[in-house]
Amino acid sequence: MKQILEFLPIVLFFGAYQMDGETLTAGAWSHTFDGLFSATAVLMIATTAVWLIMLTITQRNDKRLMWMMVAVVAFGTATLVLRDQRFIQWKPTVFNWVLAALFFGSQFVGKKTLLERLAGQQLVLSVVIWKRLNVLWVTNFVTVGALNLYVAYQYEEAFF
Prior knowledge:
By secondary structure, the chain is mainly alpha-helical. The protein has 6 helices and 2 strands, in the order αββααααα.
């Protein structure tokens, strides 16, 4: 259920994005969708709602989800206030690179890597394997962040 809830803001984002130019009316309220900007507002609301729902259901703060919500709201607000799509396009890159830095730094602070602290209860592995897996996660986060920038700057928004 957690994975479905976490995926919901992305689905709603793309749904709102596809409604560009359409008007939604409910009683006296009316909204005309404005492409990426309306989709960004939907993403901000949905991400915050998912974090609050998970907080209510589990009675504990999922820090990864909380920081994702903080990043979405911060970059989304900058996108909407400044009317500049680059902020929301940079959010995945910044988030992934911050995670890469945290995972990388964890190799030098404390006895366990961040990955071992997160998954050590479920897996029993040697220190060498934990460090290799940690490096793979760092590589993944750096690569995904770089690919996001490549797509953001090499393709027009209309391509999607």
